[in-house]
Write a structure and sequence with these properties.
Blueprint: E1 2-7, H1 13-25, E2 30-35, E3 49-55, H2 63-70, E4 81-89, H3 96-101, H4 108-118, E5 122-123, E6 128-132, H5 143-156
Parallel strand pairs: 1-2, 1-3, 3-4, 4-5, 4-6
The structure holds flavin mononucleotide (FMN).
Residues 9-15, 55-59, 87-89, 91, 102, 104, 132, 136 line the site of flavin mononucleotide.
Length: 166
């Protein structure tokens, strides 16, 4: 089984989740982890699962990630199973100063899922959020382990086949 984890990350949180997913799955699959910067747009084929991660930026995916996806050749992920995730601070308990800056709750991962679907990808799980501590400095306890568990459910096909990006 071949898995590609594609992500953007400004401060390292999304990269940490991508690494946790890779570490959790590499005993069951051949896994490549690509930061969008400087990576080729020609994906390994056959590709069984494409996992795409983004930071939430004003409630949207990162602009470089969306530009990368938009520039992907038509058909490059036709029929490929996909799953998307975002990282964001805990908006419920975050400090007021942070909440006033990062108060957008729209699903950035949902927007990525839609873009992948438009390219022919087949979402196999609802978009996921992995949550940082209220000050955004690190993940809440157990969150990276949850990311690994989530990825393994994707591999084992245990997630409900669901495309909630519509
Ligand atoms: C300019 C900017 C805008 C952001 N907007 C949001 C937002 O609207 N909602 C949110 O939950 N988090 C927002 N955040 C917080 C990031 O989503 C969060 O820190 C993320 O985990 C960073 O990922 P990274 O370390 O991979 O870059 C924003 C951060 C920055 C710097």
């Amino acid at each position: 089984m071949k898995v590609l984890i594609l992500y953007d990350s400004f401060f390292g949180h999304t990269e940490e989740v991508a690494s946790a997913i890779a570490a959790a799955t590499e005993s069951h699959a051949t896994v490549e982890t690509w930061h969008i910067q400087g990576t080729p747009r020609r994906f390994p084929r056959p590709l069984d699962l494409l996992v795409v991660g983004t930071p939430s930026r004003d409630g949207k995916p990162s602009e470089p990630l969306m530009n990368y996806i938009k520039a992907m050749p038509i058909g490059s992920i036709e029929g490929v199973r996909t799953a998307t995730f975002e990282t964001r601070p805990d908006l419920e308990t975050g400090r007021r100063s942070i909440l006033s800056t990062f108060r957008r709750k729209e699903s950035a991962a949902g927007a990525v899922a839609l873009a992948l679907r438009n390219l022919g990808g087949e979402a196999i799980a609802p978009p996921q959020s992995f949550v940082c501590a209220p000050d955004g400095s690190s993940f809440i306890e157990g969150e990276l382990a949850r990311a690994g568990d989530w990825a393994n459910t994707l591999l084992s096909g245990q997630t409900a086949s669901s495309d909630q990006a519509s």
